[in-house]
Amino acid sequence: MARIIAVIPARYASQRLPAKPLVDLLGKPMIQRVYEQVQQATLPTRVVVATDDDRIAVVVRKFGGEAVMTSPEIKSGSDRVAAVAREIQGDIFVNVQGDEPLIAPEMIDEAVRVVLEDPSAVVGTLVRKIESTEELLNPGVVKVVVSADSDALYFSRSVIPFVRDVHDQSQWIQRHTFYKHIGLYVYRRDFLLSYAAMPESGLERAERLEQLRILERGCRIKVGITQHDSVPVDTPDDVRRVIDILQTKR
After folding, report:
1. Dihedral angle at the C-alpha atoms of 38, 43, 47, 51, nearest 10 degrees?
2. pTM
3. Which of 121, 148, 232, 245 is 20 to 30 A from 16 (CA-CA)?
4. At residue 193, does pLDDT exceed 90?
């Protein structure tokens, strides 16, 4: 059996929402909400929070979670996961964003299966069909185009592909199937360590999307399609939205 380690990167600093992992969501810090969702997935054998701040580590250990300290100089989530992979033995490492308190455990298992079911896949991720023009045109929603072999061709904050013969963008989703990227990555350990050693790429800097470092080096990212959605928390408005959703589940 493959040793599958789910790692939740959690930085204290955040430009739009300071101390984001510790934001209170109906009596629990966000990092605990994420951790508990990941624990419900069936395929990971271990769940670890990778943080750069003692305050987060203390909170994680207080609710019974495992925390690993990593350098505050690390820039991206996957680089922080790689730091954990150097210290912890595992075959496959899952990067679960620390700002996804409502992530469906089924999504984590779906993403892991993308790699488990394709021995040639060194990286896997998920996409979901875009269902509204608002979502399509939102630069905060990362779009992805996928090959016939289920490999990611490109990720962008812009709308891709461009529908040339339809001038009204509100009609685009009737003419083409667009996908948004779910920020959930699954890596085979050896590739993860080599990826972290790659310098930041030009496309990565331009779009501020870490996965473009992989494509720009000519490596594959295998894609699975999910029916589940997620609600990332980046702003105070997102916090209120998540709290509203949690209240409806009580």
Report:
1. -70
2. 0.93
3. 245
4. yes
